[in-house]
Design a protein that fits this description.
Length: 154
């Protein structure tokens, strides 16, 4: 699975300002709601519910919030680079500045897990992450995220 299958170029936001995890999740829900024509409140509530199970802050300043929604029929991503890192209750207690939101249909099962794995692999690449942090241009960030073929990401 290629990231370009789930992330579109208009789904990348750079230099977003958020002061808290909750505010960021609301911003993500609003943007995803507009993209998917799903009520943002539904997305926000589902994301909060998932975060209550444990933070999706995976470490190294990266978070991968994710949720399943009955209202959508394909896996969709949204990427945000924050202007200033925020506390996300990450596993390593470091603030988060790179966020990849992943939304999947309720019945996505293995495809949802494959998408999560693919996102995690790309964001584990130190060179890619460093370049993303130095870039404010959304189209450049999109190119970096989608450049690595899935076969090379293992």
């Amino acid at each position: 699975m290629e990231l370009s299958d789930i992330l579109k170029s208009d789904g990348v936001l750079a230099s977003v300002k958020a002061s808290s995890k909750k505010q960021l999740l609301q911003e993500l829900a609003d943007r995803a709601g507009d993209m998917l024509t799903v009520p943002s409140r539904r997305i926000f509530d589902t994301l909060l519910e998932r975060e209550r199970l444990g933070s999706t802050g995976v470490g190294n300043g990266i978070a991968i919030p994710h949720a399943k929604l009955a209202e959508i029929d394909q896996i969709t991503g949204l990427f945000v680079r924050l202007f200033k890192p925020i506390d996300f209750e990450a596993q390593d207690d470091r603030p988060v500045d790179l966020i990849f939101l992943l939304l999947a249909p309720e019945g996505a099962g293995a495809d949802h897990l494959k998408a999560l794995s693919r996102v995690a692999r790309v964001l584990r690449e130190p060179g890619t992450v460093a370049k993303i942090r130095e870039t404010e241009e959304p189209t450049a960030i999109y190119s970096m995220l989608t450049a690595m073929p899935a076969s090379d990401a293992a």
